[in-house]
Design goal:
The complex is a heterodimer of chains A (313) and B (272).
Chain A lengths: L1 H4 L8 H20 L1 H27 L2 E4 L2 E4 L3 H8 L1 H31 L8 H9 L6 H11 L6 H8 L11 H29 L3 H9 L4 H29 L3 H6 L11 H10 L4 H29 L1
Helix pairs in contact in A: 4-14, 5-9, 5-11, 6-9, 9-11, 11-14, 13-14
Chain B lengths: L1 H4 L1 H24 L4 H4 L12 H12 L1 H32 L5 H13 L6 H10 L6 H5 L6 H12 L3 H9 L4 H9 L4 H17 L2 H6 L8 H10 L5 H21 L1 H8 L7
Helix pairs in contact in B: 2-15, 4-15, 5-9, 5-12, 6-9, 9-12, 10-11, 12-16, 14-15, 15-16
Classes of the chains: A mainly alpha (313), B mainly alpha (272).
């Protein structure tokens, strides 16, 4: 009680009154915003423990070699191994194949479907959209298993259907070329509808006046599509392509279930290779180096995406 | 006449729809036949009568009810806690101007750009060193803080008027009460999308549970299904039935909540 009575006397000068008032306001504002720490605390603690610490640990381990419980520093030797390892090159080549074949194929189909299903005269539009999206609802492991069973060489559904039209059975999962076709077909089945919905949202953002203006100017249907729709969709198409590319680099579930990376590593991907090196051979140092290779590639792709996006806008 | 002229287009759309649906139909057909029937020529085109036999065998040989229960349990717990963490952090970042906020925001953005696979080795070692291998907390805890969820919730809260928060404060409501009574209900659509996204990401999660779980009574659906393929004599009809059962809950949620489901799966690419 006495404390309140014997408050420090009021400042004599006007200037310092203003300053201390400002100081009080700042302190009050700081106090007012302090609960922010309470709200971010759980996320911050989790990130520190389960993201930052492992990230640093992984980076350190990529410069180490662990064998028989002995940890030793090896400098850049693990990264040197990456350069010399034919399986790393093979896995990147496989991703490159998916990148140049599967991604354009899927994005083109998705654009076509989105464009058609955005036309108001098409009947059962919403029904078709839902059906095309359905594959994206499946569990990755479950759909990969279904494809594995359908693509069985002896009596699988795919070969039975080929037989009905008089074609010879194909050894889908055991020949290098066909295993790649099978993997590409599976991923395309799973993700086309998903990308269609993204592109559809982009289409709906194009103002209707633009179409009408083009129509009045006498532009045909193809001209409208190629001159107005596609250029406007560029950011969305870029987004779809980039996420699909990053997805291909991180591919694991599908090829693990379908082919296990085979035959002859024709469907090996960097993450599947990381899994094999890290958790079948327990070579943690080298697995960490592979992981950082994937990080580096994805970082480059993200930077390129950011650059292109900024140039466009 | 219009429709007739456009019929080639509808044929094309129908073929596409058939391609989308065939694997689903095949799952249903295969899980209602015996393995021998699935691979016999000609293959079955209609559902058979073996569903209950397959179900009983699947339960007997893999304890599938337990597996499904595990998946439901892990995904539910993960969803509840992860969404709480995301909503809290999103609110903190949207409505408070504390020191280090920019740093936190940048950090969250960074976690979105770094592929999770880089964490596999150190997290595995960490779980091994605390003896959490083959436990549910090892599946749930490490991935509770989710950058996408935090951003989604922050975006949702940014639009909320500060004046309403201020007046709740003047009325004497605590900060926490203001958050879950006044602010959170307004973000219900985004929260619904986040719940669906979070649940599905855990339900589908494969590589991490594959590394963590090593006993049958702990298996989640994807791990159990993968183990069935590794057996010397694969029970293909049981496998297809298991795949169907793993997909069915997602299918039902999709049909009931299409809009939230799509915006959840899109990861913020499309506004719901």
């Amino acid at each position: 009680m006495t404390a309140t009575l014997t408050r420090p006397s009021a400042p004599k000068e006007g200037r310092s009154t203003a300053r201390s008032a400002a100081g009080r306001a700042a302190r009050r504002a700081a106090r007012r915003h302090r609960p922010g720490y309470f709200f971010i605390a759980p996320a911050l603690a989790l990130f520190a423990l389960f993201f930052i610490y492992p990230l640093v640990s992984s980076f350190i381990q990529s410069f180490q070699s662990i064998s028989g419980g002995e940890t030793s520093w090896v400098g850049l030797a693990q990264y040197q191994r990456l350069l010399d390892d034919p399986l790393v090159a093979q896995s990147l080549f496989n991703v490159f194949l998916i990148l140049v074949i599967q991604v354009p194929l899927m994005v083109c189909i998705a654009i076509g479907l989105a464009y058609i299903l955005n036309q108001s005269w098409v009947r059962f539009r919403t029904g078709f959209r839902a059906i095309y999206f359905l594959p994206a609802v499946t569990t990755l492991v479950a759909y990969s298993l279904v494809f594995r069973v359908m693509l069985a060489t002896d009596g699988g559904a795919a070969n039975q259907l080929l037989g009905m039209v008089g074609m010879d059975p194909i050894d889908w999962l055991n020949s290098e070329g066909w295993a790649r076709v099978a993997l590409i077909a599976s991923i395309t089945w799973r993700w086309t509808g998903y990308n269609m919905i993204i592109i559809l949202a982009g289409l709906q953002a194009i103002p209707a006046e633009q179409y009408e203006a083009a129509r009045i100017d006498g532009a045909g249907r193809w001209a409208v599509f190629s001159r107005i729709v596609v250029p406007q969709l560029r950011p969305v198409i870029l987004f779809s392509s980039i996420t699909s590319t990053i997805g291909a680099l991180q591919l694991f579930d599908e090829n693990f279930i379908l082919t296990g990376g085979g035959p002859n590593n024709a469907t090996l991907t960097p993450v599947l290779y990381l899994y094999k090196v890290g958790f079948q051979q327990f070579d943690f140092g080298y697995a960490s180096a592979i992981a950082w290779l994937v990080v580096a590639i994805i970082a480059v792709i993200s930077v390129v995406q950011f650059r292109i996006m900024r140039e466009k806008s | 006449m219009q429709t007739l002229r456009r019929s080639p287009l509808y044929v094309l759309l129908a073929i596409g729809a058939a391609v989308s649906l065939v694997p689903f139909l095949w799952m249903v057909i295969a899980s209602t036949h015996t393995t021998a029937e699935i691979f016999s020529t000609p293959m079955p085109f209609l559902p058979g009568g073996e569903l209950w036999t397959n179900l009983a065998r699947l339960q007997e040989e893999t304890g599938f009810a337990r597996v499904m229960l595990n998946s439901v349990l892990v995904a539910t717990l993960y969803t509840v806690f992860s969404c709480i963490v995301s909503a809290m952090c999103g609110y903190g970042l949207a409505k408070y101007r504390f020191r280090g906020r920019g740093l936190m925001l940048g950090g969250v953005l960074l976690t979105m750009m770094i592929p999770g696979q880089v964490l596999l080795v150190p997290l595995f070692q960490m779980m091994a060193s605390v003896g959490w291998i083959n436990s549910f907390q090892a599946l749930i805890l490490p991935f509770l803080a989710n950058a996408f969820g935090i951003f989604l919730m922050r975006q949702a809260f940014l639009e909320f008027p500060d004046s309403l928060i201020e007046s709740a404060r003047i009325d004497g409501a605590s900060e926490i009460k203001t958050f879950y009574r006044i602010v959170l209900p307004v973000a219900r659509p985004q929260l619904a999308a986040l719940v669906i996204y979070t649940f599905i990401s855990q339900w589908n999660s494969f590589i991490w549970p594959l590394l963590m779980l090593n006993s049958e009574e702990k298996y989640t659906l994807p791990v159990a299904l993968n183990t069935m393929v590794g057996l010397s004599r694969v029970d293909y009809s049981g496998l297809m039935l298991g795949s169907l059962l793993a997909t069915l809950p997602l299918l039902i949620v999709f049909l009931l909540f299409q809009k939230q489901f799509i915006s959840g799966l899109m990861g913020g690419a499309v506004k719901g």
